[in-house]
Design a protein that fits this description.
It contains 11 helices and 13 strands. The protein is α+β, with helices and mostly antiparallel strands and 400 residues long. The chain folds into 2 domains: 283 residues, Zn peptidases (Aminopeptidase, 3-Layer(aba) Sandwich), CATH 3.40.630.10; 110 residues, 2-Layer Sandwich (Alpha-Beta Plaits). The strands form 3 sheets. It has a 7-stranded mixed beta sheet with strand order 1-2-4-3-5-13-6, with helices on both faces. The chain has a 4-stranded antiparallel beta sheet with strand order 9-11-7-12, with helices on one face. β1 and β2 form a beta hairpin. The chain is elongated, with a radius of gyration of 24 Å.
Length: 400
């Protein structure tokens, strides 16, 4: 069978399954579930993949609403697609994750058809990943070895304006700073108090001054969510929450040290005790030009207009952590080519549930499937993608 005929099987499969995939997307849309509560979504996706001949492991990585589905023929590369299906608490599927899940399934079914009807060998795997909006499901699955041994990953996220291949994105990490002082009556015996709120206010002001000495792409947000509520009492406890975002992972460590020094300095200035801890967040996406160019070629074949290069964005996603270990490509497939609208809005939600969402599902599933088949036809592509990843990580270390 010739290359073009093998790839044509991908187009046929997605066309054959499009109505059913769209119905699944509509079901997910009508039944939005937030992080780690995606029981209906997980159930229907696992059932559908089993019925299609995939071996499905539920509760992947110890998460109740995660799964790992595999269809294998012979020995060969292991190529995965990422499914997301969590919704937002107040606005449902306003990020279009129902399309992420069904485009992954559509691509996987198309590659399965190719494996069944050609001489190609390998594995196509669907990773059902909960809690992208908050909770970092992929990070937990990565830490629990669910992705071990996978050669390449593809992923689609709906967007607006021109379709693009995702470049770098921001890294985020959070810190909790807790100041402990000594309570006292603010009027009769203020000299007996040690004011934790004073320490926190000084820290907050220090963050404002620190921003002047940071690189332009390092951003710090800071809130004081908890302190004593009695206005007549010197505060013996105040909590500060800090978030850093940056386009360079290495800058997190440098900024962390400045924050810790400031936290300790303000404790010393006020006589408070301070405790602090880091809550690791989403690391920036490591783009892969080898995989991106491959997908661009297939999108061009499908006559999809594309942005040049791999544009960076300031959002964050838990795929970033995975992309630092496994070569990954993030397709941002448009719902509305003519203008940009914000995700997490009612307008975006309704667009993703309409004809634009159906088109997004179709084109992205075909393109990802065709790119995966190209890798199965030319396994050296996976090795080149891995080499690129290793070089990008090495360059990042050199930057630090």
């Amino acid at each position: 069978m010739e290359r073009k005929d093998i790839k044509q099987l991908c187009d046929e499969s997605v066309e054959e399954n499009l109505e059913h995939l769209s119905n699944i997307a509509s079901y997910l849309y009508m039944n939005p579930e937030i992080a780690f509560q995606e029981h209906k979504a997980c159930k229907v996706l696992c059932r559908e993949l089993r019925e299609q001949g995939f071996t499905v492991k539920e509760k992947a990585g110890g998460l109740d609403t995660a799964f790992h589905a595999v269809y294998k023929k012979g020995e060969g590369l292991r190529i995965g697609v990422i499914a997301e299906y969590d919704a937002l608490a107040d606005i449902g599927h306003a990020c279009g994750h129902q399309l992420i899940a069904t485009s992954a399934m559509g691509a996987a079914l198309a590659v399965k058809k190719v494996l069944d009807e050609s001489d190609l060998c390998g594995s196509i795997e669907v990773f059902g990943t909960p809690a992208e909006e908050e909770g970092g499901g992929k990070i937990i699955m990565l830490d629990n070895h669910v992705f071990d041994g996978v050669d390449v990953l593809y992923f689609m996220h709906p967007t607006s304006a021109i379709t693009r291949i995702g470049g770098e994105c921001a890294s985020f990490t959070d810190f909790i700073i807790e100041y402990h002082g000594k309570s006292a009556h603010a009027e009769s015996h203020p000299e007996n108090g040690i004011n934790a709120l004073d320490a926190a206010v000084l820290f907050y002001q220090g963050i404002g001054l620190l921003r002047q000495q940071l690189k332009d792409d390092i951003h710090i947000c800071c809130i004081l969510p908890k302190t004593n509520q009695d206005i007549g009492r010197i505060s013996d406890y105040t909590k500060v929450e800090v978030e850093i975002s940056t386009m360079h992972v290495a800058d997190i460590a440098k900024t962390r040290e400045k924050i810790y020094q400031m936290a300790e300095g303000m404790a010393m200035a006020t006589g408070c005790k301070v405790h602090y801890k880091e809550i690791p967040g989403y690391l920036g996406r490591t783009p892969n030009a080898i995989l991106g160019d491959l997908l661009k070629a297939e999108l061009t074949y499908l006559k999809e207009p594309l942005m040049e290069g791999m544009p960076a964005d300031k959002g964050g996603e838990d795929l970033g952590n995975v992309s630092r270990v496994i070569p990954a490509c993030n397709l941002f497939m448009t719902l509305l080519p003519e203008r940009k609208i914000s995700g997490h809005t009612e307008e975006f939600r309704e667009l993703a549930n309409g004809e634009a969402g159906r088109r997004c599902l179709k084109i992205s599933a075909i393109a990802m499937a065709r790119a995966i088949v190209e890798i199965l036809l030319e396994p050296s592509i996976a090795a080149k993608a891995k080499a690129e990843l290793q070089q990008r990580i090495a360059d990042e270390v050199a930057y630090a």
